Amino acid sequence: MSTILLLISSNIFMTFAWYGHLKYGYNWPLWKAILVSWSIALLEYCLAVPANRLGYVHFSGFQLKIIQEVITIVVFIAFAIFFLKEKLAWNYLVAFAFLGVAAFFAFAFKAHGPAA
Fold first, then answer.
1. Which residues, 6+ apart, have CB-to-CB distance to 7 below 8 Å?
2. Which H or E run includes 51?
3. pTM of the prediction?
4. CB 101 within 8 A of CB 70
5. What is the pLDDT of residue 111?
6. Domain positions in the chain
7. DSSP label at 89?
């Protein structure tokens, strides 16, 4: 559970690092947007690295990445709706649903462990 909470937290920081400047810093010079984004992303890495180290005990590398992507989508949906004030269209929902199906297949069947 700590892996999931750390990944959610890291994704919140990363989403703001990548997309937050679109709302408040759009008129900034590019160098400033990059510097602010890198500063926020540093916090993201401080959460993502331990999340993946802790998670690798329970999940494969593939599964960790798929968990990360599903969390990224969920966090971004909330961010786009509440922060960027964008509307969630039906085609985006369909695309996200297909990603959910992909996640299902990643976890529904037992895969082989890491190579020795």
1. 47, 48, 51, 55, 67, 68, 71
2. helix 30-55
3. 0.80
4. no
5. 65
6. 2-108
7. -
